[in-house]
């Protein structure tokens, strides 16, 4: 399947994407994970991106398009992909349209995961992430704690609170989302690809997507 997952930070895009990969081997492509990996590795890209990310600002479109233009041409995308955290602005969506047209790829659907702001805020404040950039497993101190406190179940690395998951940075990320990313729903509605799923459980979102795709 070839999907874009839209939704505010904390809406569950990453969790939904991971479940969908299990269905047909489509790959999850998370620009946030790619960027955090670059920061950890200390690459040029990481150095350029880090300041924006820590403040909860979007990384410039040109940097993101450099990453995604290449990523979508890698062979593992042939089976399908779940774009998680991209596109995040109208210019990114327009650039993506061009890339897809050039590569002869058609999207199946754009899913907008719609979760109330207070639920999102609470989720992000209690979210914890495995610091190993190859793992990046997600936990939640309230609803999904790790078995051993502070340690990742999957790889044993430390579980941390991301620099952009302080209350201040979260508020800023949500405002940025409303201003820059929320308009994408209108953009994809016009192209007839949009499916809005309202729900706070990732299971329900996955079920709605499967029903829509008849899989
Ligand atoms: P979340 O969806 O939880 O905010 P992500 O992991 O998707 O977090 O992204 C973390 C940060 O990486 C964002 O706050 C932003 O700085 C940067 N980022 C990720 N994807 C994009 C994108 N498509 N365009 C611009 N910046 C991005
Ligand atoms: Zn881990």
Short description:
The chain has 215 residues and is an alpha/beta fold. Helices cover 48% and strands 16% of the residues.
Could you list some keywords that capture this structure?
single chain; Rossmann fold; alpha/beta; five-stranded parallel β-sheet; 215 residues; binds zinc ion; three-stranded antiparallel β-sheet; 9 helices; binds adenosine-5'-diphosphate; 8 strands
Description:
With 215 residues, the chain is an alpha/beta fold. The protein has a single domain (2-213), classed as Rossmann fold, CATH 3.40.50.300. The protein is built from nine helices and eight strands. The strands form two sheets. A five-stranded parallel sheet has the order 2-3-1-4-8, sandwiched between helices. A hairpin with a 7-residue loop joins strand 5 and strand 6. The protein starts with a strand and ends with a helix. Adenosine-5'-diphosphate is lined by residues 9-10, 31-32, 35, 52-53, 56-59, 64, 85-88, 92, 164, 173.
Q: Could you state the order of secondary-structure elements as H and E?
A: EHEHHHEHEHEEEHHEH
User: What is the CATH H-level superfamily?
Assistant: P-loop containing nucleotide triphosphate hydrolases
- Note the main sheet: 5 strands, parallel
The unique ligands bound to this protein are: adenosine-5'-diphosphate, zinc ion
Tell me the Rg in angstroms: 17 Å
Mean pLDDT: 94
Poorly predicted regions: none
Helix content: 40-55%
Number of strands: 8
Q: What gross morphology would you assign? A: globular
Strand line-up across the major sheet:
2-3-1-4-8
Distance between the termini: 10 Å
Query: How many domains, in number, for the residues?
Result: 1
- Please indicate the percent range of residues in DSSP E strands (runs of 2 or more): 15-25%
CATH topology: Rossmann fold
CATH class label = Alpha Beta
The number of helical segments is: 9
């Amino acid at each position: 399947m070839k999907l874009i997952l839209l939704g505010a930070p904390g809406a569950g895009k990453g969790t939904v994407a991971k479940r969908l990969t299990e269905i047909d081997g489509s790959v999850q492509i998370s620009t946030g994970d790619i960027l955090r990996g670059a920061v950890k590795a200390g690459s040029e890209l990481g150095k350029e991106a880090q300041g924006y990310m820590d403040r909860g600002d979007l990384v410039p479109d040109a940097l993101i398009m450099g990453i995604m233009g290449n990523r979508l041409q890698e062979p593992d995308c042939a089976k399908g992909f779940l774009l998680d955290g991209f596109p995040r602005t109208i210019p990114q969506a327009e650039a993506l349209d061009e890339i897809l047209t050039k590569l002869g790829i058609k999207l199946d659907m754009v899913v907008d995961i719609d979760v109330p702001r207070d639920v999102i805020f609470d989720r992000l404040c209690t979210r914890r992430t495995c610091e190993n950039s190859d793992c990046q497993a997600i936990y939640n101190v309230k609803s999904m704690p790790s078995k051993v406190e502070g340690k990742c179940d999957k790889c044993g690395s430390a579980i941390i609170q991301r620099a952009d998951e302080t209350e201040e940075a979260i508020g800023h990320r949500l405002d940025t989302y409303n201003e820059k990313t929320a308009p994408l729903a209108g953009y994809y509605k016009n192209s007839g690809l949009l499916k809005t799923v309202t729900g706070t459980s990732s299971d329900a979102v996955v079920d709605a997507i499967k029903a829509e795709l008849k899989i």
